[in-house]
Amino acid sequence: MAAAASQVVNKRYPELNVQVEPGAALVNMEKIRNDKADIGWSMTTVMADAQKGEGQFAGKATDKGLFVANFYPNVWQLVVPANSDIKSVKDLKGQPVALPARGNTSLAAGWEYLLKVNGMTLNDLGAKSYGPVSSNAEAVKNRQAMAAGWFTVVPASFVLDLGSAMPLRVLPVSDEEFAALRKLNSGFVRYTIKAGTYKDQGVTDAVQTFQSPTVLIASSNTSPEVIYKITKAIVEGRDEFGNVTSEMKGVKASDMAESLGMPYHPGAEKYYREAGLLKQ
């Protein structure tokens, strides 16, 4: 997605010369906080934590990361073998679990928060293995772990891959759990995985879960004129992102302008107002 975004911007405004560097939601916010990046991908949950100085940003609150555009939902998907007795997060107590690497948003904003609202911590789980999503899936395949959970797009490649080896169950998130999650972090949004999405993986019904939208953010130190051009380029060139992820196919300009309560960068706000996407 980052490469596609840079191409979209550079094609329309070659003088900006947008370059891509490796990063992730937490890392990118940290770079912006430390004035080591002008723009970057992040998530609404990371923005909320950074602004309040909570979670991974405890003791280092920052308001430098500002909203530019909303791209697609990062959906929490926690899967277990369908033939297991695990039907809720609490059932994972003492069970071996495959987890994202430390520092990954899926661990900090996914696992740790979801365990917390259920009165648990990582210490309540059984044997834990940390690694990338591919190794997590392999661990469940090999019965070295009984669960794997990540924030990612729908359908998730790790669920499709794992479901080719065994029928799965996607653990739902109850209304009570979601309400508690929202108290921990205002960046969470309710999401329903549609019925039939994973029918070939053994999941026939719709599943209630939650998501943290993938957003483009920019430093408050970055020129409003530059961010205006970037915002204009990616919103008006949004159809090109559909070739990168199905989540972006048919996305509306109004969807990209939705900050979910996060503060806008002045350059982005200027474009959205001129385009009639924000109330004057």
UniProtKB/TrEMBL annotation:
Coiled coil: none annotated. NCBIfam families: TRAP_TAXI. This is C4-dicarboxylate ABC transporter substrate-binding protein.
